[in-house]
Amino acid sequence: MSAALTAATRRVLLLAIEARRDDPPTARWLRAQLDRLDAPLRIAIAGKVKAGKSTLLNALVGEQVAPTDAGECTRVVTWYRDGPAPRIVLHPHRGAATPLPVTRRDGALVIDLGGTPAERVERLVVDWPAQSLRAATLIDTPGIASTSEATARRTVAFLDPDDETPTEADAVVYLMRHLHATDAAFLESFRDQGVARATAVNTVAVISRADEIGGGRIDALFSARAIAQRYRADPVVRGLCQDVVAVAGLLAQTGRTLRQSEHAALTELTRAPRERLDADLLSADRFLRSTGAGPAADVRSRLLHRFGIYGIRLSTTLIRQGAASPSALAAELVARSGLHELQEVLHSRFGARRDLLKARSALLAVESVLRAGRDPRLAAEVERILAGAHEFTELRLLGALRSGGVVLPPVAAEEAERLLGAAGGTAAVRLGLPDRASPGEQRHAAHAALERWQRHAVNPLYGRATADGCRVVVRSCEGILAALPR
């Protein structure tokens, strides 16, 4: 069905380009939307200042490509996409694009605007050869609630344009420490506008810096995962985002970029008496001021910058337990950071429905053109796709279930979301079966689900909106059955 939807969207874009051939700027913009259908999914990373956006982006890429020094590093919207060779290009609001030098310092990419004020920069585009960027282009955004109003405004303007044009992001990963009022307000505005309009299925929330919860205790990540679980069950949060994941971004970034020298320095720390090291790791100041045997002060400072106190505590414990090589330690750090869980969520929630998300973005672009000048033929074609594509109907019902617009008993609501593709688009995932389930098992489960939801659809206790929603789930079950081999 996604291939048919993409083909129909492509036809609409070509019609729109033809209709605006006398308006070259609009035609060029629509042509860019057409090219976007064949490009990787665009995922924006947003959040408050110092929420750990750049650190998490580095962890996802597997290299230190985004600056993470103290202060507000990301002053402009920065795109990271796969490319044959490293390249940085500055795109100003006015004038021609300018290449910037590609330099690295201590293994990290350094981005220098060359004296250009940030307010004059529309975006930076960083091309970087990375396997992780082939499936999705990552977009780092300035922090909302920034000390600089102009800096915060760049993120809002990018994700929620006030001229009613669709945002250039297909989906959003929103970082927060806890759900504060500013976080909820931002997610609410994004839900009602742009690419996520009327649905929360294009947004995933991340409890970032999870290792700092509870004062950085050794069980901090367990506490963070428990908090994420509570948020997932909260009706308010469910109406704002599709999922909540806890991630220790610094731990993930360091695990993905661990160096031999760092493992050696950590191993040297473990040779100190356990009581002495535990005392040194009670705070950053004590660790830096330690006069005991072990790495020199400058090495301790670099370890603290790269791992944080929690990361050093965890790493030395893991080395004592047998992580005798850099690769073994790196694997443990990444596994414990929550990065794998986030990657799985991004794959199942965004990657599996990338064609749908890109088609939605393109149709929103055509809608914005229709608002500027009415075209009956074009309007009819867009309406036909939006009304006829079951994928969009599923998205609308998912949003209604999560926001409370359609109410079902808890068990039925959970199954409805799964059958609609909230957890992933494959038949096995929708049916709640393991990936290895045979076609026969899947057909049996699909038939059972179809019969169950046909009964829900005629339940006289359900109101009109709920009954209509049940019929949408019935159609999804029929689609699952039709796609399964006989």
Overview of this protein structure:
With 486 residues, this protein is of the alpha/beta class. The chain has two domains: 261 residues, Rossmann fold (3-Layer(aba) Sandwich), CATH 3.40.50; 85 residues, no CATH class. Helices cover 55% and strands 11% of the residues. The strands form two sheets. The chain has a nine-stranded mixed β-sheet, sandwiched between helices. Strand 9, helix 6 and strand 10 form a beta-alpha-beta unit. The longest helix is centred in the middle third of the chain and has 24 residues. The chain is globular.
| Main sheet properties | 9 strands, mixed
How far apart the termini lie comes to: 18 Å
> Considering DSSP H and I runs of 4 or more, what fraction of the residues is helical?
40-55%
- Report the structural category: alpha/beta
Shape: globular
Mean pLDDT: 86
Measured by DSSP, the beta-strand proportion falls in 5-15%
- The total number of structural domains is 2
CATH fold-type name of the largest domain: Rossmann fold
What is the CATH class designation of the largest domain?
Alpha Beta
Q: Find the count of extended strands (DSSP E, 2+ residues).
A: 11
**What's the CATH H-level superfamily name of the largest domain?**
P-loop containing nucleotide triphosphate hydrolases
Are there runs of 5+ residues with pLDDT below 50, and where?
Answer: 192-199
